[in-house]
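Hi L., both proteins are below.
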Amino acid sequence: MIPASYLYKDIYRQTWLDPDLECAWARQEAARLDAIPSLRQSLATLLRRVADILYPAGLASGHS
């Protein structure tokens, strides 16, 4: 869930600081695109840790 304070800040920014919808949309799209690589990296790290737990290095070398 998104805290109400973040929603309020976003609405305030869109309404008062840059009421131009094109500018607000471009800023929101840029923020979304910036978040995607960090989400991918976090997911890759999580999956790597799970794989290390499920398949320790000692077991992998024992299989032919």
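That was the first. Here is the second:
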Amino acid sequence: MNLGVLGLILDIIGVFIITITEIVNPHYGKTYGQPLRKTYWWNGWRPFYKNTQTLKWVTKWNHKPVVEGMLPPKYKLEIIGLLFILIGFVLQLIFYLS
């Protein structure tokens, strides 16, 4: 498979990620715990997690803990989609210039 086709596939994957993110639009909220530093919270899905009391791995398919982070999940997925598109564009550019 040449770089042009691989770049096109990565572009399609990136556009698909951004489109699904815009359609689903995961809910998140802001918390202002410290001055000049805002964090975000959202309900994540983690089917495999480690129990803190027994220290054993547990499988629970409907486990949705509250997750905190510096970037909300929507921004993270948009950044990942844009990276796929950028890498695909660079691969296509390398293929067509060589």
